[in-house]
Amino acid sequence: MLRKLSAQTIVAQAGIGQSAAHQDVVAPLHLSTNYLWDNSNEKPAFDYSRTTNPTRSLLEKTLCELEGADQAILTASGMAAVDLTLSLLTPNDLILAPHDCYGGTHRIIRARMERGHFNAQFMDYTAPSAVDEVRKTNPRLVLIETPSNPLLRITDIRKITKAAKAVGALTIADNTLASPALQNPIDLGCDIVVHSTTKFINGHSDVIGGAVLCKNTAQAEELAWWANATGVTGSAFDSYMTLRGLRTLNVRVQQQSASAGALVNDLVGHPAIEKIHYPGLETHPGHDIASVQQRAFGSLFSIEFSPTIPVAAISDRLALFSPAQSLGGFESLVSCPATMTHVGMPPAARNAAGIGDHLLRFSVGLDHPDDLLADILQALERA
Ligand SMILES: *Cc1c(COP(=O)(O)O)cnc(C)c1O
Q: What is residue 347's predicted lDDT score, i.e. its pLDDT?
């Protein structure tokens, strides 16, 4: 092969025609928990499925190719992936994390800090003082999440990784919201990428899963050791399903991003809307950075509605956006961060992060954008 394959080809080709036993075109699902040893001194490539499994391994290899990583660890959930990276910390180490990170991430970091597992500081990477803060605090890990959820704030990945590197810290990017279709943090200087594969990567809202992708093999070995020791590795069946979903990642994300952009353009200026958070808007803080580090602006946006209309009255009247947690699937969803996705955050931290009570987050699916626009307009009319 003369040139590097594009992401679309990588996912279309993963494991095709490589199974010797029955000449399967699509790679089979290996459910066996254990594998034969040729003799008792020679450990086979696959031995016990908590440690390694052929189906999981194929998904890991494919995700590595997509993200430019050297080694991957598939986990049972996105939270297991985030928590696994925390195993790199000892009680004297400091982790910096976004003040507006995913609610579950905020919760596990706080809980482990309170147990004395490590020190943690939550900060705003979009503040002008962010680089100084990284230098001054001398962290071991710098966790970033861009775009952020639900306000789609943009962190300058190159700038933060450079500052982290200068003080010998590793940068971990939670790339769930962008997905590998839109952004590759390792190419921008990050050491480790984590994903909730539950979202865009599987894309069909029927598997919970996660992944840790490492550029540097030393950390990968350490993390693989912890994953095996604690048993947080993902199941073979989930890996099979996730690879099946991943086949269409690029086409889904392109279509969903285009639909979200069109919806946002049509909703700007609506009298019931105070503000729309969407990186594709030129007025959005970080729009210029997103234009450089992302290939498109994504399928998520959030809207601050006029305080005179209760947000529940709007979400209850939507017919095509289902009220549910999660994001990035083929189905269109609406959620109220203050009572749903971010309820794990203390109210004071939520307010400090700018997540108010009049905010709704929309995850645009594969429905036709004209139908979705009509749905939002009728809900606003009746609310
Ligand atoms: C959903 C999500 C997680 C957690 O993933 P699960 O698969 O639900 O455990 C972590 N980070 C981000 C940004 C997410 O959206």
A: 83
Instruction: Give Dmax (Cα) for the chain.
Output: 74
Q: Rounded distance, CA 72 to CA 224, Å? A: 8
Residue 86 to residues 81, 166, 179, Cα–Cα distance (Å): 9, 21, 21
**The one catalytic residue among 100, 124, 174, 191:** 174
Query: Catalytic residue at 199?
Result: yes
Give how far the C-alpha of residue 83 lies from the chain's centroid of Cα atoms, to the nearest Å: 14
Would you say the C-alpha torsion 150, 151, 156, 162 has a positive or negative sign? negative
In this structure, the residue with its CA closest to atom 7 of ligand 1 is: 78
CA torsion, points 138, 144, 150, 151, in degrees to nearest 10? 70
Q: Show the ligand 1 pocket: residues with CB < 6 angstroms.
A: 77-79, 82, 102, 104-105, 145, 149, 174, 176-177, 196, 198-199, 208, 210
**Which residue among 35, 47, 48, 50 is the active-site one?**
50
Q: Would you say how long the chain is, in residues?
A: 383
Q: What is the dihedral of CA 265, 268, 273, 279, to 10 degrees?
A: 60
The model's pLDDT over 60-90, given as tens digits with 9 standing for 90+, comes to 999 999 999 999 999 999 999 999 999 999 9
pLDDT at 2: 58
Closest atom of ligand 1 relative to the 328 alpha carbon:
15
What is d(CA 225, CA 50) in angstroms, rounded to the nearest whole number?
Answer: 11
User: Ligand 1, from 199, 239, 325, 340: best to mutate by most atoms within 8 Å of Cβ?
Assistant: 199
| Token output for 74 | 């598939």
Tokens of 318: 């939507």
In sequence order, what are the residues at sequence separation of 6 or more whose Cβ sits closer than 8 angstroms to the Cβ of residue 322?
331, 332, 333, 334
Active-site residue, selected from the candidate residues 83, 100, 102, 124: 102
How far is the C-alpha of 253 from the C-alpha of 30, rounded, in Å? 29
Q: How far apart are CA 127 and CA 104, in angstroms?
A: 23
Q: Residues 333, 339, 341, 347: what is their CA dihedral angle, to the nearest 10 degrees?
A: 150
**Taking 60 as the threshold, does the pLDDT of residue 1 lie above it?**
no
Residue matched to tokens 């969903």: 256
